[in-house]
Write a structure and sequence with these properties.
mainly alpha, single chain, 39% helix
Length: 143
């Protein structure tokens, strides 16, 4: 009797493992593979958020950047990562590996003193903030 059941049990086990490991319920993160295993790209994922929300003429563009923080493409990474915040010098603007201790995250989440960023605009979505948090957690790579 066991000889007849072994193939059926093996097939049921394989089916359970395959279905149980499906990532259909996982949100797409990073640069779009859907399984969260790829690094988040600064240039492809983070910079577009900064450009769309932070670089208008009254904020963080090259003309007159608030707090000396130019967030335009080509300048943003060097002005963010491992740079002390001008408003709180005990924190880095982006502290690689530490989103909770990164001033950028605190400003985006509204937990830092002063205005929540982006100022005079709707806050970033939870997904956008999480993407930035994840990028920092992954080491804030210049990729």
């Amino acid at each position: 009797m066991w000889r007849r059941m072994v193939p059926a049990l093996a097939l049921a086990t394989v089916f359970t493992v395959v279905v149980g490991c499906s990532d259909d319920d996982n949100p797409v993160s990073g640069n779009g593979n859907g399984n969260g295993s790829e690094d988040i790209s600064f240039s492809a994922d983070v910079q577009p958020i900064l450009t769309a929300n932070c670089t208008n003429s009254a904020c963080h563009d090259a003309t007159d950047p608030q707090e000396g923080l130019n967030l335009e493409a080509g300048s943003a990474y060097g002005n963010l990562v491992d740079v002390n915040s001008s408003q709180n010098s005990s924190l880095k603007r982006v502290d690689p590996g530490n989103p909770d201790d990164s001033y950028l995250v605190r400003k985006l989440e509204g937990t830092a003193p002063g205005f929540r960023m982006p100022r005079n605009q709707p806050p970033l979505s939870d997904a956008q903030i999480q993407l930035i948090r994840d990028w920092i957690e992954q080491g804030a790579l210049d990729n």
